[in-house]
Specification:
heterodimer; A: mainly beta; six-stranded mixed β-sheet; five-stranded antiparallel β-sheet; globular; B: four-stranded antiparallel β-sheet
Chain lengths: 112, 117
């Protein structure tokens, strides 16, 4: 079945450094790739997304890149801050269907 | 953005009892809602897809007789954990998409923490 693999499972960076999280998907029909941030005890919230007709998207300190040929996409956070500490989930969706497949999550620690 | 609420936010029940969790889309309609289970420090595990007016679609390994789903209206889906056992203790989250918009974002409820004693 469809699968999304996410790496690393845990990432620790120093404040101000960059963080990169990578995901690979299996369903070639996937055309929408969101990233969610979940703080402890709270609901996941969308932080950025990208559609398959775009290779890169940026929103302030957050950027996402997509390589459809290789079926992988990445989240880049620059100038990390302690408040970026959370669990990040990548996901893939075929917008012709309805089921979003989530990665296993990456626990990001930003050390002050 | 669109808002999804969930009730209760936490519940403690005794083994053998049933617990109902409600998921509501507050400002949009959703023919499809999703129920997830999340263990501590783990990912979101899709349990089932709730379909308004029809039977839910359960993921492999999820007991449909244990986790009853009802989607009676375009804004409400309920998950009932029947004959709860301590191993059912978990964080349950629902989500929905605003199907009336061109946005594919999933909006999550705040979750329900179930503890079975």
């Amino acid at each position: 079945g469809e699968n999304v693999e996410q790496h690393p499972s845990t990432l620790s960076v120093q404040e101000g450094d960059s963080a990169v999280i990578k995901c690979t998907y299996s369903d070639s029909a996937s055309n929408y790739f969101p990233w969610y941030k979940q703080e402890l005890g709270k609901r996941p919230q969308l932080i950025i997304d990208i559609r398959s007709n775009v290779g890169e998207k940026k929103d302030q300190r957050i950027a996402v890149t997509l390589n459809k040929t290789a079926k992988h996409f990445s989240l880049h956070i620059t100038e990390t801050q302690p408040e970026d500490s959370a669990v990040y989930f990548c996901a893939a969706l075929n917008t012709g269907g309805f089921k979003t497949i989530f990665g296993a999550g990456t626990r990001l620690f930003v050390k002050a | 953005g669109a808002v999804v609420s969930q009730h209760p936010s936490w519940v403690i029940c005794k083994s053998g009892t049933s617990v109902k969790i409600e998921c509501r889309s507050l400002d949009f309609q959703a023919t499809t809602m999703f129920w997830y289970r999340q263990f501590p420090k783990k990912s979101l595990m899709l349990m089932a897809t709730s379909n308004e007016g029809s039977k839910a679609t359960y993921e492999q390994g999820v007991e449909k007789d244990k986790f009853l789903i009802n989607h009676a209206s375009l804004t409400l889906s309920t998950l009932t954990v029947t004959s709860a056992h301590p191993e059912d203790s978990s964080f349950y989250i629902c989500s929905a998409r605003d199907e009336g918009s061109a946005v594919y974002e999933q909006y999550f409820g705040p979750g329900t923490r179930l503890t079975v004693t």
